[in-house]
Amino acid sequence: MIQQVTRGIRISVETNFEGAFYKNYKMRFAFGYQITIENQSNDSVQLTSRFWEIKDALNRTEIVEGEGVIGKKPVLKPGETHSYRSGCLLTAPFGAMSGHFNMVNFTSTRKFKVKIPTFKLSAPFAIN
């Protein structure tokens, strides 16, 4: 598990390899990940949007931006957590993801970014 804390918000990431398959005559590697967001601050916060940079071993980069996470904009009171599962497809058996969540502090009404720690994606058969 990878973890990082930014401004009292802990982000934890666990990954897994889902399998490989052909799509449009190209090999694809499917990875899943679980993100847990824990509010360790003294203020209530809301996740409003996300930004991902996904890179694979073939030096391809994909940028993903959007509102919320899996259709939700969770509000976290102090001590609360929110977990969700998602995934991505790569064209190589290795890659990495990094990014940030845009959040708003309900006490100060200030917007801030919470870093998502870089995490590696790797198919077990490809590890030497």
From TrEMBL:
It comes from the Bacteria. Residues 3-128 form the ApaG domain. The lineage of its organism: Bacteria, Pseudomonadati, Bacteroidota, Flavobacteriia, Flavobacteriales. This is Co2+/Mg2+ efflux protein ApaG. SUPFAM superfamilies: ApaG-like (SSF110069).
